[in-house]
Amino acid sequence: xxxxxxxxxxxxxxxxxxxxxxxxxxxxxxxxxxxxxxxxxxxxxxxxxxxxxxxxxxxxxxxxxxxxxxxxxxxxxxxxxxxxxxxxxxxxxxxxxxxxxxxxxxxxxxxxxxxxxxxxxxxxxxxxxxxxxxxxxxxxxxxxxxxxxxxxxxxxxxxxxxxxxxxxxxxxxxxxxxxxxxxxxxxxxxxxxxxxxxxxxxxxxxxxxxxxxxxxxxxxxxxxxxxxxxxxxxxxxxxxxxxxxxxxxxxxxxxxxxxxxxxxxxxxxxxxx
Length: 273
Ligand code: C2E
Ligand code: MG
Ligand code: MG
Ligand code: MG
Description:
Layout: H1 2-7, H2 24-37, E1 40-49, E2 55-66, E3 70-72, H3 78-84, H4 87-102, E4 111-115, H5 118-121, H6 126-137, E5 144-148, H7 157-166, E6 169-175, H8 182-187, E7 192-195, H9 197-201, H10 207-220, E8 223-226, H11 232-241, E9 245-246, E10 255-256, H12 257-265
Parallel strand pairs: 2-4, 4-5, 5-6, 6-7, 7-8, 8-9
Antiparallel strand pairs: 1-2, 1-9, 1-10, 2-3
Helix pairs in contact: 4-6, 6-7
The chain binds ligand C2E and magnesium ion (3 copies).
Protein name: Diguanylate cyclase/phosphodiesterase
């Protein structure tokens, strides 16, 4: 069960022996090599249907197996990648690695979400790169959703439109917080809203927020996904509100590719009983 995944330390919350600080430049150089040297890998967190917990697909989440610092979470290197521009190469690696994995899942109804940065959307050929990768792995565009908290700043609108033109789906990540707001939604049409975990996890006083986001999604014809579901109570509350899909430690932690595949084929124990 999930406790087993936790105990094996494969959940992405394993200890991180890295202190962000003085050596960002070195880390930037190391990251450049890490992308080509195979030090990055992806975990897959199941996205499940509510209320039946059927696996609909997964969100790919990057990790860096650093030779001396150990496993590093994205917060420790994505900001560096964004500052140095390495994010463009990193996102291309993530895209191809994730689509390659998706191409091995025999159930063609499964979907895959990957995270991109706003910087990617300013690359003039980003949509072309995504189209090429989909073609390379023989993946139908509608099976891919690209997530970002901010998709609407200067120059990124055309990329979002081009991606959606391809049939790729675009999601506003962490919706309801920071950049991921109504302003963003009004600026650039998207396909999916991911309700930020702060609203999923909050107490009963926050229920109107989760309900309103769902209403908003429904009235705009968008999919709503609740993120960061950690408890049975949260899951049932969201299901009662009408959320049809969710992610969170309650259902499953981010899993190595092999364990996600086992979960799909039913050779592994089912998520949180
Ligand atoms: P995100 O896209 O909002 O991903 C959700 C984060 O919440 C993940 O953290 C996931 O492990 C964690 N999470 C999932 N369920 C739960 C839960 O029930 N409780 C709690 N407390 N946390 C939960 P992770 O993997 O550390 O990723 C953090 C952020 O890093 C992501 O937030 C995303 O913004 C960014 N990121 C991850 N992978 C990539 C990537 O490949 N490219 C880019 N550009 N950014 C990435
Ligand atoms: Mg995300
Ligand atoms: Mg999120
Ligand atoms: Mg986030």
